Amino acid sequence: MTSVLPSESSLDGRFDRLIQPDKVHGTLYTDPSIFAEELRRIWFRTWVFVGHESEVPQPNDYVRKKLATQDVIMTRAADGQVHLLINRCAHRGLQVCDDAQGNSSSFRCPYHGWTYRNTGELLGYPYNKGYGGKNQLAGLGMGRVPRVASYQGFVFGSMAEDGPSLIEHLGAAAGEIDRLVGLSPEGTVSLDVGWLAHRTRSNWKFLAENETDGYHPQFVHGSIFGVTGSPIGALYSDASTAVTRALGGGHSENDLRPEFRSFAEPMRWFGTTPDRVPKYVAAMEQAYGEDASRRMIEGAPHVMIFPNLFIAEIQVFNIQPVAVGECTQYATAVQLGGGEELNRRMISQSIGSVGPAGMLLADDTEMYERNQRGVEMLDPEWLDVRRGLGRERTDDAGFTIGAATDETGMRGFWKHYKSLMEA
Ligand code: FES
Ligand SMILES: [Fe+2]
């Protein structure tokens, strides 16, 4: 048996050894020092999905969120600007805000009464003579996520003062968000019906890798596909014409459009027919003319945006790490502006598939947790990611693509992960 743990003396080039083209090392999921390094080099540096502007629609609205291990408050200031405040008092470090959401122009720390504007500035402190009077504590305030940007209302934060812009980070994945928004006759999506939170005893990367793993659905979800007569399984079969695409930047997708194009039936992607959602179809035709039919045939994207935003057609997931062996998966239903006939069903389907008794996510989560328990065993040391390596090709846009069941997305994830961890 070869050595199980990397030796302390060889930290240089560590990730080059742990991440190889066809295999990745088990310690990537279990070593607390690697997790600490991921926080520094990925979660507190790159752009991380935090929430959606529709969660704070009115001035002074706020909602509590997570950015990795950090408790943040997403606020909308009076001027409409969205901010991400770090939920910690500048006096003695108390968690300032305890409510999940609300509307307020300021936050008051319950310990000694220091008050902050919803942009983070310190407004005042009681018994100010002890500090030599008012306005004596210049520079103190709540922490702020230094860079906040949104794309189609999806709000991202970066803990790094500078670096690539959000648009540069999203790269080709931005077009997948556009595809989703392009299914709204009004060109808008909202994520405002509330998030389910699933605490999961698994390293976050098992989730990120699985989101575009087209190899597992027929097995993990075979029972529910069988009971419901779902056509989803066929999309991920060996005979499927769908492709797995590495979009660069660690992003990946299962592109199901080749399958839906071959049927050329509008709304098949949603499991319905145009006559059952006539107002939506009319609104799409009104908004997009001849292009409406293509949009309604091709449907919504299935894309994993590095490191933590997963758009699964009608659901959005926000994955946040808690510790090396634990993360939280937040899930919500997409709501399309002008798509009322679809929106209610998106909520009920989301409850049925990814809710507390949901039939898809519970099965996936069982795999994540069993995967974590498995990799804590020391032999064999590696996880194999070679599936489809010999049949990958390059598409017209220059992206690497594989078959529907290939591990092309995972390899793209690891390539980008390695570049960040070694930067
Ligand atoms: S810890 Fe917040 S006011 Fe003292
Ligand atoms: Fe799954």
Can you give me a brief rundown of this structure?
This protein is α+β, with helices and mostly antiparallel strands.
What descriptors fit this protein?
423 residues; alpha+beta; Rieske Iron-sulfur Protein; Naphthalene 1,2-dioxygenase Alpha Subunit, Chain A, domain 1; 2 domains; nine-stranded antiparallel β-sheet; 25 strands; globular; binds FE2/S2 (inorganic) cluster; binds fe (ii) ion
Largest sheet: 9 strands, antiparallel
The structural domain count equals 2
Ligands, deduplicated: FE2/S2 (inorganic) cluster, fe (ii) ion
Report the top-level CATH class of the largest domain: Alpha Beta
- CATH topology of the largest domain, by name, is Naphthalene 1,2-dioxygenase Alpha Subunit, Chain A, domain 1
Shape: globular
**Which CATH architecture of the largest domain?**
Alpha-Beta Complex
* Strand portion: 25-35%
> What is the residue-mean pLDDT, rounded to a whole number?
95
Helical coverage, percent range: 25-40%
Structural class: alpha+beta
Taking pLDDT < 50 over at least 5 consecutive residues as the criterion, the unreliable ranges are: 1-10
The CATH superfamily of the largest domain is Naphthalene 1,2-dioxygenase Alpha Subunit, Chain A, domain 1
End-to-end gap: 31 Å
